[in-house]
Amino acid sequence: IVVALTEGLVADIAKGSNLQLLGTYVASSLCWAISAGAKNEKIKSVDDLKGATFAVSRYGSGSHLMAGVLASQQGWGKDAVKFKVVGAFKALRDSVNSQDTDVFMWEHFTTKPFHDSKEVKRVGEIYTPWPCFMLAARSDVAKAKAAAFKSVLAAVGEAAEIFHRESKTMPKFISENYKLKLEDAEKWYQGVNIVATPVIPAEAIKKALEALQSSGVLTPSNYAKPKPLEEFVFKELASLSDSKLLPSPKPSAKL
């Protein structure tokens, strides 16, 4: 069983992977911070990003896809931003500080210590328009181990309930183990909604597919024929829902 970003799993399945979704792990959106070089005076807000070069960890990654989502939301068109693959998180920070690229996107709380230290500067943010993490497995393995998977997923669901119930101790635990300020750990804890449910919003898959196509991750060459949404889901353990985009949503904490 794998826990991964929704858009990555949807892309792999759309391209023909034998993965299938087992459920929604985190129902809340992921906040991607948009960062520029500390001394870059030309970029001060999202309004300055049309035509910018985005540093990305790899093509098809969240840092790549969400830049395409940003361009779409701003009405710029998919060709209004450029991309350069530079590698992992430190390489992204180095790239904008050398002004080899203009900006990069990375998860808000992971990036915040580098905003606080002024290594890079925050110029904006964007939230995924879908639940940010899903559970998945290879369909052949899920079929062979369906009973065991059902027990595991039930246990993960119970753990998620404990996580939300232990509101007095969890922020301190998160702060100490992930090197975050306690106030930042508290904000993350207040905003995240770990549900570990076998229910998958159909709209989440639709929105991810639209973003993957508009950003060029899915093309006629690797996704020529649209796949029915039902084929993204391992139906023996999970089900599609048309009722809500985010099952039992928990409001995001104000950052």
TrEMBL record:
Coiled coil: none annotated. Its main location: periplasm. It is found in: Periplasm. Residues 32-126 form the Ca3427-like PBP domain. Keywords: Signal. The keyword Signal applies. Pfam families: PBP2_Ca3427_like (PF22384). The keyword Signal applies. Belongs to the bacterial solute-binding protein SsuA/TauA family. This is Ca3427-like PBP 2 domain-containing protein. It comes from Lotharella oceanica. The lineage of its organism: Eukaryota, Sar, Rhizaria, Cercozoa, Chlorarachniophyceae.
